[in-house]
Specification:
The complex is a heterodimer.
Chain A lengths: L5 E10 L6 H10 L12 E10 L4 E10 L6 H7 L3 E9 L3 H18 L5 E7 L11 H10 L4 E4 L8 H15 L6
Parallel strand pairs in A: 1-3, 1-4, 4-5, 5-6
Antiparallel strand pairs in A: 2-3
Chain B lengths: L1 H23 L19 H14 L4 H15 L6 H11 L5 E7 L3 E7 L12 H14 L5 E7 L11 E8 L1
Antiparallel strand pairs in B: 1-2, 2-4, 3-4
Helix pairs in contact in B: 1-2, 1-3, 3-5
The chains are: A alpha/beta, B alpha+beta.
Chain lengths: ~180, ~170
């Protein structure tokens, strides 16, 4: 086996309506922390994380763009997509409207502005709020299949449940699409 | 200079985007610096840290970098100036081993040669930030309603200078 370490830089975007937990997912992934108070993102949070994929001995620099969900950013948002290869499409499992806009807005934006065929995963966040569930697991999975998402994962950014898995799976799926990992 | 650059980020990436660059540069202490002083001295280490962070985080975002460059031109020279003066002054403002020179000037076109561009991050990729800066500066220096178009060429310069390129600018009504 070769000792050469492969190097990749992947820009990914985290998309979804305001307050679905996009920033919280990234904070949990990077810092293992959660903030109770909600502060809307202004423009874009851009965060780097360097990871190693043991299976293929590769270093991946992940540049994560957490895009503001507010409508006032609709015009400039198109520029933020340039160079992007993957996305986490996030909805809040307690607010049905955020589930519906994944298809009507966020996936449409992603397909429109990402020139090459991108990889995306559907994320149902806030599963810790079990009493307030508005979208169940089966419906989420069915929708992920319908929109050809490469994966469907339910997460709790508050407690860190499945958060690492969501980002890792996206990286693996991108590498698979590039032919670097077996399908 | 640094504050003009921060203001440009603020316009294009908004507050969280600007903070992201500063966080990556380990310079969060200057996140609320706003007063643009075009005659101020440059804190070179901060400037380079910011450019490095920018080129890391904005990897592949050529359109955004171009827009940041346009905004930088606005904040550095808000009232516009003769283009030749701007070309001279930018290398005085950022005094290092780079050069910006108008090598050909015609009625409706100009060729600018940039060697060791301080805004460049990726070898072999045209520097869109400085291109945006020059295009906007020229546009402001020309009479109204002139449209400036550009093309960039790296290959005409020596391979040993990866951050060097030639920018061809043309303008028309």
């Amino acid at each position: 086996m070769s000792d050469d370490v492969k190097e990749f830089v992947f820009k990914i975007v985290v998309l979804g309506d305001a307050a679905v937990g996009k920033t919280s997912l990234i904070n949990q992934y990077i810092e293992h922390s959660f903030q109770e108070d909600y502060k809307p993102t202004l423009g874009a949070n851009i965060i780097r994380k360097d990871i190693h994929v043991e299976k293929i001995n590769a270093n991946v620099r992940l540049i994560m763009w957490d895009l503001a969900g507010q409508e006032k950013y609709n015009v400039i948002r198109s520029m933020y997509f340039q160079g992007c290869v993957g996305a986490l499409l996030v909805y809040d499992s307690t607010r049905r409207a955020t589930f519906e806009t994944v298809n009507t807005k966020w996936l449409r934006d992603f397909n429109k502005y990402v020139k090459k065929e991108g990889t995306y995963i559907l994320i149902g966040n806030k599963i810790d709020l079990t009493e307030q569930r508005a979208v169940d697991t089966n419906e989420g999975q069915g929708f992920a299949n319908e929109i050809n998402a490469s994966d469907f994962i339910e997460t709790s950014a508050k407690y860190g449940e499945n958060v690492e898995k969501a980002f890792e799976n996206l990286v693996h799926n991108i590498l698979q699409k590039l032919g670097e990992l077996p399908s | 200079m640094v504050t003009a650059l921060l203001q440009a980020y603020l316009d294009i990436l908004d507050y969280d985007g600007m903070k992201s660059v500063l966080k990556e540069a380990d310079l969060m202490n200057i996140k609320d610096s706003r007063d643009v002083d075009p005659n101020g001295t440059i804190e070179f280490i901060s400037f380079y840290k910011i450019i490095d962070a920018q080129n890391l985080l904005l990897f592949g975002c050529y359109r955004l970098l171009y827009e940041v460059g346009k905004k930088l031109a606005f904040y550095l020279f808000p009232y516009g100036k003769d283009f030749e003066e701007i070309v001279e002054e930018i290398t005085v403002l950022i005094k290092t081993n780079w050069s910006v020179e108008i090598v050909e000037k015609k009625e409706n076109s100009m060729i600018v040669e940039i060697e060791n561009c301080v805004f460049c991050g990726e070898a072999g990729v045209p520097c869109n930030l400085f291109t945006g800066f020059l295009v906007q500066s020229l546009k402001k220096a020309l009479p109204d309603n002139r449209r400036v178009v550009y093309s960039s060429d790296k290959e005409e310069l020596k391979e040993s200078e990866p951050n060097s390129f030639i920018l061809k600018l043309r303008w028309k009504k």
